[in-house]
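[retry 2/3] Succinylglutamate desuccinylase/aspartoacylase family protein: previous attempt timed out, resubmitting with same input.
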Amino acid sequence: MSDTPRKKRPIGSWLRKKIKPGEKKRLLLKAGEGFTGVGVHLPLMVWRGLEDGPVLGITAAVHGDEINGTGAIRKLIQEPPFELKRGALILVPVVNITGFERHSRYTPDRRDLNRTFPGNEKGSLTARLAHLIMEEVVGRCDYIIDLHTAAVRRTNFPNVRADMDDPDCARLAESFGAEVIVNSSGPAGSLRREACRARCPTIILEAGEALKVEPSVQDMTQRGLTHIMAELDMIDVADDLRPDTAPHQMIVQGSSWVRAGSGGFLKFHVAPGDTVQKDQPLATSTGLLGKEHETIVCPHHGIVLGMTTMPAVSPGDPILHIALPDTRKQFHSLEKSVDRIEEDTLENQVRDHLATSITVVEHTLVDEDDEVELKESDEI
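[retry 2/3] Succinylglutamate desuccinylase/aspartoacylase family protein: success.
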């Protein structure tokens, strides 16, 4: 990364409006026109502290149906848990405004906005929106936290993803306080990757499900954002009021999807956030009449980072996303830490809430001799 100072756009004037220290202003950025020719606008809020300091961008719904972050930003606007003393916040509840209005992950021209950055001001609708975000948001920020959820019909256990080789990204990721940090630079064309290339350190939070605003995810998001703002000296938080953080933190270099070997209807044996051991049963696939087709076992030691919420699967469908500790020692340390988490902690609340989207049952061995074949005369 170059040592040349980065030239940022000013925070105090925007769209011919002045934003004074201590002020909050709601703004609308024109993002283009819809099919009717009527303007499409991107709503955001700028909140300046009383003193100079870093500019932190908080964005959500780059995928238009991933709205947990939208709810978290709205709550931050309506019920701020702190007084912003230094620096400024740029709050963008919905980046993909055209996808959001259609309850869709994608933009109306069927593109993935989070594979289109840095965009092009003369390109497609999606490319123009990406360019606008890079210029007007990334171009004014010192740091960005981008909030995501799992794709539709999946759920994610809260985890931060960051390029841990970048000291500023590592600082943000560790300060957030999630149990799991996935070390990666992000896919090509993603907001995170391109913002980092523009020398604006950016991390993402993956948590919860699409098309939902989940209370426990909101609480964990707000806690993590408060941690980061305290770390950046944007807010004053007394030690006795500082929100609790995760009882442990694991940085993983990789993850793996476990897939169905056959089609069927799943019984899950684990939930998001569970630690799992190699060869442990994860799910049992049965036919609609209950005959067992296969037991899907874990190929690695790890922690359940994400999983499908749709029990009906085809061969090859992804079922569980497992974060892979670097060593067996790291896994056992994680396993012991998870076992010691007290019941009333936010971490356990999130585990319990995410598990409500699936039914988890203990794995039991089926004795084939006990199965009774249906006779032609038996009714179904």
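[retry 2/3] Succinylglutamate desuccinylase/aspartoacylase family protein: The domain at 13-231 is CATH 3.40.630.10 (Aminopeptidase).
[retry 2/3] clearing retry counter.
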